[in-house]
Write a structure and sequence with these properties.
360 residues, alpha/beta, Rossmann fold, eleven-stranded mixed beta sheet, two-stranded antiparallel sheet, 11 helices, globular, nucleus, DNA repair
């Protein structure tokens, strides 16, 4: 396993920019075969990539698609990193290379090895865990500046050749320390001598500008390198404009929304199974193939439990709770009105704050 630290990204040698016309890019993308990496939960793979009419189900791989950006968000401790580990193990076992970028949460190496060992045993493969972990590159992005520099002006070997999966755990982690919430920012400006309205407007909009640059670059990387990008997004509690406390993604807005091809939300309840002490998690597909799903269908909500060596799907399960999550500004308000908003158990622990509670 290759671990790298980003200490001085500004010293990286710039790479030449190669441009292609829109017609060439469209023709190239149309000729590529649609491929995907499994999540480790067959039911979730089918929900993300439902079989077409007349498809026997075994001809095409299913899961998060290559060449696209997939977002996973949910409350703290719900299993976002566990799902990312499961996807990474499947990508490694399929012969690809994986780049894991952490912005504060260390890579759980022991859990990754246990997940790989279980996957090898189930597939009866001759591969070994040591061989597979050599194809994983771990990069620590210590701040938002390091993350942006790596993605926009990375070294010539980033991402490595043959990389099929890029995981960012988490993409929203560095933002709160750089961009305070609007209420706090307005209070600071009120006590300062800053009166210039243009400067105040720039301070209020810089979060959205950085998010837009990040979203555009993730889309470019996924498209040019034909790899799957998994961006973990944390949550905050939103009170204003909502009938009750509601969980919202930290990174949001028009540019971020347009860059996301597939969106998964994870949440849990206090139901327990007879053979598992952990609570049941639910993975719900909210966006598929670039389109928000207006209706909540049972086949798009997959229950699972987290075990020490991976994820395990459940066959029979209680009815999933009506999750209290919503999307932020810049998204389709008509679809928001169609989606019923109710409480889930996780929201009871969230604070009443526009800034929200971020997992650590």
């Amino acid at each position: 396993m290759n671990t790298q630290e980003l200490l001085s990204p500004a010293t990286q040698r710039p790479r030449p920019v190669v441009s292609f016309s829109a017609s060439q890019s469209l023709q190239a993308s149309a000729s590529l075969n649609v491929d995907a990496v499994s999540t480790g939960l067959p039911q979730l793979d089918d929900a993300i990539s439902p079989p077409s009419v007349g498809d026997e189900g075994d001809s095409e791989p299913r899961g998060i698609p290559y060449g696209q950006v997939t977002e996973v968000f949910g409350p703290p401790g719900v299993g976002k990193t566990s799902l990312a580990l499961s996807i990474a193990s499947k990508a490694l076992q399929a012969g690809g290379k994986v780049v894991w970028i952490d912005t504060g949460s260390p890579l759980p190496r022991i859990r990754l090895r246990e997940t790989l060992q279980r996957s090898i045993q189930h597939s009866k493969s001759s591969q070994t865990v040591e061989e597979l972990v050599q194809s994983l590159t771990h990069i620590r992005a210590q701040s938002l500046a390091h993350l942006i520099a790596l993605l926009l002006h990375g070294p010539s070997n980033f991402p490595p050749e043959g990389c099929t999966l890029l995981v960012i755990d988490s993409a929203s982690g560095p933002f709160p320390s750089y961009f305070p919430n609007p209420t706090e920012l307005k209070a600071r400006l009120a006590h300062s001598k800053t009166i210039d309205k243009s400067q105040v407007q720039w301070l209020m909009n810089r979060n959205a500008n950085v998010t837009s640059d990040l979203a555009n670059q993730l889309t470019k990387l996924a498209t040019t390198h034909q790899m799957a990008i998994l961006a973990i997004n944390q949550t905050r509690t939103r009170i204003k404009g909502q009938p009750r406390a509601t969980l919202c993604p930290v990174l949001s807005g028009g540019s971020w929304e347009s860059s996301i091809n597939t969106r998964l939300v994870l949440y849990n309840d206090f139901y327990t199974t007879q053979d598992a002490s952990d609570s049941i998690r639910f993975a719900e597909v909210m966006k598929r193939a670039g389109r928000l799903l207006a209706l909540r269908l049972e086949e798009n909500i997959i229950p699972f439990v987290i075990e020490t060596d991976g994820l395990r799907a459940l066959g029979s399960h209680p009815s999933p709770p009506m999750a209290a999550f919503s999307l932020d500004e810049g998204q389709d308000s008509n679809i928001q009105r169609k989606r019923k908003v109710d409480e889930i158990a996780d929201s009871q622990d969230e604070d009443d704050s526009d800034a929200g509670l971020l997992e650590k």
